[in-house]
Amino acid sequence: MILAPARRRPKLDQWLAFATVPFFFTLFGIVFVPLSGMMPPRSPSSSPPQIVDFMQSDSLLVACAILTLCFGLAPLSNAVYLIQIKRMSVSPVFRYSLMVGSMSGAIVGMLFPMFCFGLGAFRTGYDPSVLAMLYDFGYLAYIGSLGCFCVMWLAFGLAIILDTNSVLPKWLGYYTVWQYVTELMAAPVWIATSGPFAWNGLMTFWFAMVIYVPWQIIVYVCIHRSIKNQPDDELENA
User: Fold this and answer.
1) For residue 104, what are the contacts with CB-CB under 8 A and spacing of at least 6?
2) Which domain holds residue 44?
3) I want to staple 88 with a disulfide (CB 3.0 to 4.6 A). Which of 23, 39, 132, 163 is the partner?
4) Cα–Cα–Cα angle for 160, 164, 166, rounded to 5 degrees
5) Are 149 and 211 spatial neighbours (Cβ–Cβ below 8 Å)?
6) Which 8-state DSSP code applies to residue 57?
7) What residues contact 128, with CB distance under 8 A and at least 6 apart?
8) What are the C-alpha distances in Å from 215 to residues 16, 87, 153, 178, 195?
9) Within a domain: 186
10) How many whole angstroms separate alpha carbon 204 and alpha carbon 182?
C-alpha cells in the first residue's frame, strides 16, 4: 500500500504568526481594561488616596503577571509586518526600522508600565509618595512611549507607498502615515498634567485611539488578504 504524500502547507508559519494577533490583542485588552483598570487612563491629578487604592489592588498584580506571560507574543505579532515588507521592492532598511521600533516600543510601552504598576502592587505599606511616582512613571511610559512607534509606523507606511510589487494597497500606506502623525501627540503628556494633552486627554489619548483602533483592524485585514494571495512559488519555504 502506497501512502499519498502529506499535503504541504508552505504558508503555515505565516498563518501561525497571524493567529497570535487576535489572541494577543484580546488578552492585552482584557488585562488593561476590565482586569486592572489601567485603561482608560486614570487622571494625572488623582488624589493620593485614589492612587494608593489603584496601585495596591490585587487585580493589578494579576494583570502584570499575565502581561509577563503574553509579552513573548509581541514578536510573533510583529512578524506579520516584517514578512510583508520583505516581499516589497524596498530597501531592507524599512524592515529593520520597523523591527527596532517595535522592540523599543514594546520595552518602554509594555515592560516599563508592567514593572511600575506591578511593583506598586507587590508589597503593601509603600509610602504614598513612592506609589505616586510609580503611578506617574507607569502612565508616562505607557502613553508617552507612543513616540517610540513613530519610526516603526513611518517605515511601514513609506514601504507600502514606495513598493512597486503591490503587496499591500497604496491607500493603506497613506493611512498609516496619517496614523503615525497621531503618535506625535503623545509628546505633550510629559508637560501637561490636565486638559486635552494630558495622558488621559481628548487629543493625546482619545483622538489617537479613534484613529489607531480602526487602522489596526484594517491593517490586519489587508495583511490577511496579502498572505492569502501570495503565490506559493514566491515563498522561501515552498
Assistant:
1) 148
2) 12-234
3) 163
4) 65
5) no
6) -
7) 48, 51, 52
8) 22, 21, 11, 10, 25
9) yes
10) 8
Q: Which of 204, 159, 201, 202 is nearest to 183 (CA)?
A: 204
Per the domain annotation, does 226 fall within a domain?
A: yes
The one-letter amino acid code at 156 reads F
Question: What is the SS3 assignment for 235?
Answer: coil
Total tally of structural domains belonging to the chain: 1
Cα 124 from Cα 115, distance rounded (Å): 16
Q: Which three cell numbers stand for residue 107?
A: 520595552
DSSP 47: -
Is 102 inside a domain boundary?
yes
Per residue in 148-207, pLDDT (tens digit) is 788 889 999 999 999 999 999 999 999 999 888 877 888 899 999 999 999 999 998 999
Torsion sign across C-alpha atoms 158, 161, 162, 166 = positive
Say if residue 97 is exposed, middle or buried (CB neighbours under 10 Å; 0-12, 13-18, 19+).
buried
DSSP for 94-125? Answer: HHHHHHHHHHHHHIIIIIHHHHHHHHHHHSTT
